[in-house]
């Protein structure tokens, strides 16, 4: 009987370790819908009170769009791969490729679409208010 108890204890301990590892992974990937993956890379408080910097890798499958949304602060984009069309309110749409950058002012409604034939990726750096959601879908 003690053999079964120790085996059960080992299984429970393994499950606890796996659960803790999943909860504490620094780069957790979040699917935002079919074909969109957001991977949190880092988040740090800034010297400006109530503000934080957040870096996220966003991957878009071919033909996939991320709908109109805003952020509670600035977004600084660096395209890592592929071709992404950005539609920023008040400006004509622009298609950016690997190595291109884009600055989106706080609260500006914008959208992105992968217009290439391969997965497109960007590094998004946000300088945002800590007490607000990082992303809000536009109505």
List the helices and strands and how they pair.
Elements: H1 2-24, E1 29-33, E2 36-45, E3 51-60, E4 65-70, E5 73-81, E6 83-88, E7 94-97, E8 101-104, E9 110-114, E10 120-129, E11 136-137
Antiparallel strand pairs: 1-2, 2-3, 3-10, 4-9, 4-11, 5-8, 5-10, 6-7, 6-9
Shape: globular
Total of helices: 1
CATH-level-4 superfamily name: Jelly Rolls
Radius of gyration, in Å, reads 20 Å
Total domains: 1
Fraction of residues in H or I helices: 10-25%
Order of strands in the sheet with the most strands? Answer: 1-2-3-10-5-8
- CATH fold title: Jelly Rolls
Class inferred from helices and paired strands: alpha+beta
CATH architectural grouping: Sandwich
Largest sheet: 6 strands, antiparallel
Give me the strand/helix succession.
HEEEEEEEEEEE
Name of the top-level CATH class: Mainly Beta
Strand tally: 11
Q: What separation lies between the terminal Cα atoms?
A: 61 Å
InterPro entries: Cupin_2, RmlC-like_jellyroll, RmlC_Cupin_sf
Organism: Bradyrhizobium neotropicale
Protein name: Cupin
Signal peptide: 1-31
Can you walk me through this structure?
The protein has one domain (27-137): Jelly Rolls, CATH 2.60.120.10. The strands form two sheets. A six-stranded antiparallel β-sheet has the order 1-2-3-10-5-8, with no helix packed on it. The protein has a five-stranded antiparallel β-sheet with strand order 7-6-9-4-11, with no helix packed on it. The termini are far apart. The protein is of the alpha+beta class and 139 residues long. 17% of the residues lie in helices and 51% in strands.
């Amino acid at each position: 009987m003690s053999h079964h108890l120790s085996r059960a204890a080992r299984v429970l301990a393994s499950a606890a370790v796996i659960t803790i590892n999943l909860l504490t992974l620094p780069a957790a990937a979040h699917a935002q819908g079919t074909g969109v993956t957001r991977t949190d890379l880092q988040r740090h408080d800034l010297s400006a009170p109530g503000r934080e910097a957040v870096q996220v890798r966003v991957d878009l499958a071919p033909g996939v769009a991320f709908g109109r949304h805003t952020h509670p602060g600035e977004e600084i984009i660096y395209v890592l791969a592929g071709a992404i069309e950005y539609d920023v309110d008040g400006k004509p749409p622009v298609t950016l490729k690997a190595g291109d950058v884009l600055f989106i002012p706080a609260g500006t409604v914008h959208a992105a679409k992968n217009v290439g034939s391969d997965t497109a990726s960007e590094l998004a750096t946000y300088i945002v208010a800590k007490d607000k959601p990082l992303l809000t879908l536009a109505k």
